[in-house]
Amino acid sequence: MKKTLLALVLPALLAGCNPSDNDSQPPAPAAQAHEFLVQLSSGAEGIGARPTGTEAETRAAAWIQDHLAGWGYEVQNQPFTYTRGGTDRTSQNIVAELKGQSDRVILIGAHYDSTGEKKGSEGATDNGAGVAALLAVAEALKGETLPYTVRFAFFGAEENGLNGSKAYAASLDTDAVAKLLAMVNYDTIAGGDIVYVHSAHSDVAEYNCADPSRYSFDPKVRDRLLAISQQTATPFAIHPSYSGYPEGETGSWSDHAPFACLGVPIAYVEATNFTINGEDGYDGYSQSTNPALWDCYDDATKSACDRDSETQWGKIWHTEHDRLDKMAELFPGRIEQQLGANTDLMI
Predict the structure, then answer these.
(1) Is residue 293 a contact partner of residue 311, using CB atoms and an 8 Å limit?
(2) Predicted pLDDT of residue 4
(3) For the chain, which end, N or C, has fewer CB atoms within 10 Å of the first or last residue's CB respectively?
(4) 124: closest CA among 331, 284, 345, 341?
(5) pTM (two decimals)
(6) Are residues 171 and 316 in contact, defined by beta-carbon separation less than 8 angstroms?
(7) How far apart are CA 117 and CA 127, in angstroms?
(8) What's the rounded Cα separation, in Å, for the pair 12 and 32?
């Protein structure tokens, strides 16, 4: 029988407590995750948009590092360079590790940069939510000794080419790769209508790996997270098969891809909606059926009333809708609920 989150944290919270000091107890991890999301993605109350390569992206990295160090983690700041548009650019990954009884590693990653700021996006769902959940998990687990080592990786410069995760994966020697049991990618885990979990694609050609012979599309990490989620109030879904992508499989467009190329089993969690016949078909890029996100949505066809004239297509990521104030209007309570569920599940 698996312990629930409450079974794990209540003894620690209640030890030595009496009614007079209950108010001093730290917030639950789910609530803490939402507070981190506000601090990171709200332009009014925190950092706000974090465009790749800007001072705001650097500030976000320092903010993440300060939290982890404050909780007692030994934090690695991994600067890297990459080329974009013929220009050399820099960013950094922030990595912390919770040593376990084994040196075999479960790696959990999320990118902290954002895009779409010219349209008004503040990167709340993409990917403030993933960062906030990972931080809350790191805080909740601090000081624990788990069966395996857990590594938290916050990647920079994802939005213009997965540069952070590529740099981190390239920095691992053969022994370090061999110790990686799993990589879980938290990218846009809240906001869309349905929370999905994916494995890598069964066709290695989709991932363009430098050494295809090392590639892994083993779905065991996806399937394990799927099974755990069924015990929660927000079970994950597996997307149905659609053109080019078999059931439950995803492409190489997020930070899980470099690790699949190294032969590490991956799982990728995202909130979207694969039931919508969107601008490019059933591909998950139309994230919601909310009529406010469409010029005209036809519930019968799960598509635009007029596909030739539609301009919005239900999209959240990279748009003016990807900010906490807008999401609160469109989906009251959804961000809190999905973010909290993903935080509790990972713990």
Answers:
(1) no
(2) 39
(3) N
(4) 331
(5) 0.92
(6) no
(7) 13
(8) 16
